[in-house]
Design brief:
Largest sheet: 8 strands, mixed
CATH class of the largest domain: Alpha Beta
Strand content: 15-25%
Bound molecules: ligand PMT
Helix content: 25-40%
Number of helices: 13
CATH superfamily of the largest domain: CoaB-like
Length: 401
């Protein structure tokens, strides 16, 4: 499987003859399993049609800020930029290189570029005199100083009939450059991380269960971030609608706390880090009825058995593993979280309190406080769960530095 499998690639296409090669480029990227979102400058439509590219990329192509066809939707450049794992501008004309180097922002592609936080790759293409012009050389140096990667133009016969450097790198070369970028030394390369996510369902009878409001988003966002930083992930997930497709993430679906316990212990020896973001039921019905329970009685009592504490059981046998737990509290938050650090032998706890607006279950945001084994307390701002995941993964990276 290609390392590009599941990677989100923003492909910016600008108005040069080499744009015709992007049909082949999109095909190769899609074949490698990448998700490709094409953004074209208006000028590039002269060289390759959006219909060709949207057919190959299997999604609409964007050019304008405003999308008149779909009842007037706004193509949000910030959202597009944040979506991407990598941005590739190919071909990049002399004009667009100059704009990127100097912060000009007069179309959707440039606005997305200026909002992008992901690595940016640029494959220039132009006639040879333009390529060797001092202003182009200066702009390429400036773009390199922004930590962008230039995929150099190649030598050969140009559209003008002249022979020299200026041809856009071949799609195969561009794809292998991107592949190499994803296998480079990333901070969690070689580390395996076990993550639990979502709720557990504790069956009462064949149709009913005891569950909770965890959506799984927090755990899935952590899994995505670990994979992005080069780690291998085993994601033990309770029932959730969350989706993840990444060659570096193995998803193990479980239902109940006992299933989750078994899956975590099966993988524990192989992993370096555990992040327990799941909301595990503390109790389960003692008996599971084999048939649907009838509503004849006026009262109905369920006797419950205590579930094993998965994280505490891992803490009790941990060797080299770095253990990160969560604490979801409603009162005396910091005190309770500190007790969990000791009881479960944790290295770090991520405390979220249901008293904080925007924190906890179901929501796209979370407000957490980090507490480490030395009881250092570090409150964080309210952030998106993606950003909270980045903070958690940064803590893990710092542990290995
Ligand atoms: O899924 P989302 O909607 O995105 O919401 C995220 C979240 C609120 C569920 C998440 O941020 C969170 O706080 N998860 C832990 C919730 C919880 O069960 O907290 P706890 O204080 O009961 O448990 C403490 C720790 O022990 C947790 O790491 C938990 O995974 C673990 N645990 C708890 C009980 C048990 N039987 N086994 C465990 O491993």
């Amino acid at each position: 499987m290609s390392v590009l499998s599941g990677k989100k690639i923003l492909l910016g296409i600008t108005g040069g003859i080499a744009a015709y090669k992007t049909a082949g480029l999109v095909r190769l990227l899609i074949k490698a399993g990448a998700e490709v979102q094409v953004i074209m400058t208006p000028a590039s439509h002269q060289f390759v049609t959006p219909y060709t590219l949207s057919t190959l990329a299997k999604r609409p192509v964007y050019t304008e800020f405003f999308h008149a066809e779909e009842g007037g939707t706004w193509n949000n450049h910030v959202e597009l930029a944040l979506w991407a794992d990598v941005m590739l501008v190919a071909p990049a004309t002399a004009n667009v290189l100059a704009k990127m180097a100097n912060g000009l922002c007069d179309n959707l592609l440039l606005a997305v570029y200026m909002s992008a936080k992901c690595p940016v790759y640029i494959a220039p293409a132009m006639d040879l005199d333009m390529y060797v012009h001092p202003s182009t050389a200066k702009n390429l140096t400036t773009l390199t100083s922004y930590n962008h990667v230039i995929i150099p133009a190649e030598e050969g016969e140009l559209a003008s009939g002249l022979i020299g450097r200026g041809r856009m790198a071949e799609p195969e070369t561009i794809v292998s450059t991107l592949e190499a970028s994803f296998t480079q030394d990333l901070p969690l390369q070689g580390k395996k991380v076990l993550i639990t996510a979502g709720p557990t369902y504790e069956p009462i009878d064949p149709v009913r269960f005891i569950g909770n409001h965890s959506s799984g988003k927090m755990g899935y966002d952590i899994a995505k971030e670990v994979a992005k930083q080069g780690g291998e992930v085993v994601l033990v997930s309770g029932p959730t609608n969350q989706k993840i497709e990444d060659a570096h993430v193995e998803v193990v679906h479980v239902l109940s706390a006992l299933d989750m316990y078994e899956a975590c212990h099966r993988y524990f020896d192989q992993v370096d880090v555990v992040v327990a973001a799941a909301a595990v039921a503390d109790y389960r019905p003692k008996e599971i009825a084999t048939q649907k329970i009838k509503k004849n009685a006026e009262e109905f009592t369920i006797t419950m058995d205590k579930n094993p504490d998965i994280l505490a059981s891992l803490g009790a046998i941990k060797k080299h593993q770095y253990l990160v737990g969560f604490a979801l509290e409603t009162e005396n938050e910091v005190e309770h979280a500190k007790q969990k650090i000791t009881k479960k032998k944790l290295d770090l706890i991520v405390l979220n309190s249901l008293n904080d607006t925007g924190a906890g279950f179901g929501k796209p945001t979370n407000k957490v406080t980090f507490i480490d084994a030395a009881f250092t307390v570090e409150p964080m701002d309210l952030k998106s769960k993606e950003e909270v995941a980045q903070d958690i993964v940064n803590k893990i990276i710092q542990h290995y530095e």
